[in-house]
Every structure is written in C-alpha cells, then in structure tokens.
Amino acid sequence: MGYEIPAALGVRLADPGREVFALVGDGTYLMMPTELVTAVQEGIKVVVVIVQNHGYASIGGLSEQVGAERFGTAYRFRDEAGAFTGAPLPVDLAANAASLGAAVYRADTVGELRAALRAARDGDRPAAVYVETAPEDTAPGAQAWWDVPVAEVAARPAAVEARAAYDERARGRRRHL
Fold first, then answer.
1. 3 pairs with which residues across the strands?
2. Angle, nearest 10°, between helix axes 35-42 and 4-14?
3. What is the sign of the dihedral through the CA atoms of 98, 109, 115 and 129?
4. Lower CB count within 10 Å: N or C terminus of the chain?
5. Which pLDDT belongs to residue 140?
6. On the CB side of 162, how many CA atoms lie within 13 Å of its CA?
7. How far apart are CA 128 and CA 36, in angstroms?
8. Is the pLDDT of residue 97 over 70?
C-alpha cells in the first residue's frame, strides 16, 4: 500500500506511449497523494482511480480476521462514549486530487465510470477518477487469506474465535519451498 501512484509514474516514464492507470483505495491514496503534484509538475499523464469506501477496508478486513474487530479503520468521528462510531468524516478525496492539479472525474454509476475512464484516458494531463462505494461493499466470495498469526492467548471472544479460524486456515497452507 502506498506505492501505486509513484509506481504508475515510473511505468509511464519507462514507456511514455502507454496509458497507465493506478487503482487505489482511499487508505492507500492518503499515504502518498502528493505524487500527483509530481505528475502535474512533470507532465506525466497517469490516471489514478480512487475507490472511496470511507475507511481502510482491506486493513479492516484483516483486523476483523485477527480478532481486532476493525478497530480504527473507518473514517468516523468519535461518538459520545469515545468510540469511532459517530458520523462519517467529511473526507473528499476528489477535491483533494483536484487541489493537487489533477483533472477529476466523479462516477456514481457503471455508465459514468466507463465515461470517466474514457475521458481520463483521452485527456492530456494527470487525472483522477473518483468512485464512492459503501463501506460494507466487498467482493463476494473472495477467497484470499492473509497469513497473519493471531494471539494464541487471549480473553476477548473475537480474538479466541479468530485464533481458532487462523489455526484451521494455517493447516491448509501449501508450502512451496
């Protein structure tokens, strides 16, 4: 996470005739959006597709997998009890990309996404295609597993359950070396 925009710049510099797209989630985007400034400054045309799901969704999934219950992975204000379950933060990554000098195309439907991708591809400057999704949207049936060990000794039920699930998944690991 975090290297996608600079990597896209490198690909475009290595092959200037190639159209280069980078797909980033909002968490990844926040790690290094300033490379868009470099793209604008140097006239390096890349298209960054920003998927805004209002939090660190993949890290939240990993957090849940290891029994940490997605702690701190949503862009939310604190509630009255101090938990991060309040109203969503007013984060506008499209406005951020525009402020860095990128052409920005917002897409709310599949048709708009196709049109935005075409317009960004056909443009002559760095661009961002902004797609907002619901935080709970995930890829149904995804079969990926991150081999991140879970604490063997824990008292929280979520962590105990996560360790049992980890042990089960780990038994099915394939050793390639």
1. none
2. 20
3. positive
4. C
5. 53
6. 25
7. 9
8. yes
For residue 172, the model assigns a pLDDT of 83
Q: How far is CA 93 from CA 38, 102, 103, 113, 149, in A?
A: 17, 12, 13, 16, 33
Instruction: In whole angstroms, give the CA distance from residue 32 to residue 85.
Output: 26
- 58-to-25, 37, 70, 94, 112 alpha-carbon distances in Å: 9, 26, 10, 20, 25
CA dist 77 and 101 (Å) reads 29
Give Cα separations from 54 to 32, 73, 89, 132, 136 (angstroms).
Answer: 17, 9, 8, 8, 10
The CA-atom distances, in angstroms, between 110 and each of 57, 117, 129, 131, 159 are 21, 11, 12, 10, 38
Rounded CA-CA distance 162/172 in Å is: 16
| DSSP at 81 | T
pLDDT score of 141 more than 70: no
Q: Helix, strand, or coil here: 115?
A: helix
